[in-house]
């Protein structure tokens, strides 16, 4: 600690406590209040007139200063030493008229206890002492699953180091015969927590879609793609999110929904309850009937006011908009769109042509000598990107080769020479063109995929 002036205390290497660790900084305390600023630029300012409680808590070999302000919120600061106690106690008593009391946390290791909701947070009590507490302002999502509630926390983007550890999820189990059940606690958290997605009522429900406790802001939707599957029986929608939703430490930037193309629905839309909350351009009706995927398309488009992108000019050997292939061990379909590659279902993959440096075809053999020389009836496509996130699409049927090569060349994407070419194989046709290809990388100036605006498709089918 630096030697402070008589009216100022200053402490080095103090970190903000709570779910984020590692962001150390400087704390200054004077008669008007308390200020803290981390090396990463994050700051906290507390007026002395707002302080209602000050607590001194042992944390390992150091100590934590916990300050509670009006309204029940609190701030925690780690990194103090025992030698700092007396000067802090005297300063708080003289300037803020507060007693610096000692608080001991229960460190027995027991993982069962009681929940005590205190203002804007909860305290987990073990025996006679607290084990930990959770400010509801830190909660980003609250998911109920039978007798278990999962709390997911906001992440700190100003952490001083990429290696800083942060609590991302906490799961609590509620016994059926306990004082508080899971549903009661779930509602309590949603009422108090900073879960922006819980606001607003339901406008419409599609029973054909599996439901989850994730709600997505319309402003988080960046792209919507409508992808007819080659089986001509299903239609998929891929919704791209920014920021993505998160389950634990895993982020999901794309959602894929699949509809039976023949299924129909009579949808009731709660327009009266949502009066004044819908976009002015919205043309939704209180009753909408037709094929489920068409009604869903219209509802999503009207609510988000975003265009829905459909496949463009590409057609496979079987006159389909996609090619069957695999990414790692997952089978799916690759859609060569007008401005990007899309792969569904696992993992949903979106690659803009402007982000591609080069593509390479692997395991390509000639049709004439493939059977004789043991050549493969399938080939692979490797996409190299500027960000280094290369993707390999494997197991494409040999009959799809020429159409895919011609399409990629038409987009001006650079193609590497074929690897593993059979010695003496016939390189006429597409293969010969491919070896000589040196097209420039797409600069992103190509037009968007065709926007779906056909009237008969925008409007639901009539019964």
Automatic annotation (TrEMBL):
UniProt keywords, alphabetically: Chromosome, DNA damage, DNA repair, DNA replication, Nucleus, Transcription, Transcription regulation
Key word Repeat present: no
Keyword Transcription regulation assigned: yes
Origin: domain of life: Eukaryota
Gene3D superfamilies in the cross-refs: 2.30.29.150, Pleckstrin-homology domain (PH domain)/Phosphotyrosine-binding domain (PTB), Structure-specific recognition protein (SSRP1)
Region (Disordered): 434-463
Role played: Component of the FACT complex, a general chromatin factor that acts to reorganize nucleosomes. The FACT complex is involved in multiple processes that require DNA as a template such as mRNA elongation, DNA replication and DNA repair. During transcription elongation the FACT complex acts as a histone chaperone that both destabilizes and restores nucleosomal structure.
Protein's name according to its UniProt entry: FACT complex subunit SSRP1
Native species: Acanthamoeba castellanii (strain ATCC 30010 / Neff)
């Amino acid at each position: 600690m630096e030697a402070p002036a008589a009216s100022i205390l200053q402490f080095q290497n103090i970190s903000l406590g709570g779910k984020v660790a590692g962001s150390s900084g400087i704390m200054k305390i004077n008669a008007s209040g308390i200020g803290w600023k981390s090396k990463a630029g994050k700051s906290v300012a507390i007026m002395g007139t707002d302080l209602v409680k000050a607590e001194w808590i042992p944390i390992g070999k150091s100590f934590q200063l916990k300050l509670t302000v009006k309204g029940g919120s609190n701030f925690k600061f780690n990194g103090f030493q025992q030698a700092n106690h007396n000067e802090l106690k005297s300063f708080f008593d003289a300037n803020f008229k507060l007693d610096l009391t000692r608080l001991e946390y229960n460190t027995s290791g027991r993982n069962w206890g009681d929940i005590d909701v205190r203002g804007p947070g909860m305290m987990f009590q073990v025996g006679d002492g607290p084990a930990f507490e959770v400010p509801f302002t830190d909660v980003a999502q609250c998911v109920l699953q039978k007798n278990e509630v999962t709390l997911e926390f906001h992440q700190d983007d100003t952490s001083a180091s990429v290696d800083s550890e942060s609590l991302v999820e906490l799961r609590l189990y509620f016994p059926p015969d306990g004082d508080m059940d899971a549903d009661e606690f779930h509602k309590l958290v949603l009422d108090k927590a900073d879960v922006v997605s819980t606001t607003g009522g339901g406008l419409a429900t599609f029973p054909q879609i599996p439901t989850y406790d994730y709600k997505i802001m319309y402003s988080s939707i960046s792209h919507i793609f409508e992808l007819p599957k080659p089986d001509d029986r299903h239609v998929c929608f891929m919704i791209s999110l920014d920021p993505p939703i998160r389950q634990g430490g895993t982020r999901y930037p794309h959602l894929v929904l699949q509809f039976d193309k023949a299924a129909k629905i009579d949808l009731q839309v709660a327009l009266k309850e949502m009066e004044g909350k819908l976009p002015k351009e919205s043309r939704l009706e209180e009753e909408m009937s037709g094929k489920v995927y068409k009604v869903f398309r219209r509802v999503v488009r009207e609510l988000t006011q975003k265009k829905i992108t459909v496949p463009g000019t590409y057609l496979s050997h079987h006159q389909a908009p996609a090619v069957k292939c695999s990414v790692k061990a997952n089978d799916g379909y690759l859609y060569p769109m007008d401005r990007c590659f899309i792969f569904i279902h696992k993992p949903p993959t979106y690659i803009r042509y402007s982000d591609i440096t080069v593509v390479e075809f692997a395991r390509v053999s000639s049709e004439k000598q493939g059977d004789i020389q043991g050549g493969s009836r399938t080939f692979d496509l490797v996409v190299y990107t500027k960000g280094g996130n290369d993707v390999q699409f494997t197991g494409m049927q040999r009959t799809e080769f020429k159409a895919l090569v011609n399409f990629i060349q038409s987009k001006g994407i650079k193609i590497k020479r074929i690897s593993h070419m059979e010695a003496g194989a016939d390189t006429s046709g597409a293969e010969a063109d491919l070896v000589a290809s040196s097209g420039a990388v797409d600069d992103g100036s190509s037009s968007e995929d065709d926007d779906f605006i056909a009237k008969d498709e925008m409007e639901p089918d009539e019964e």
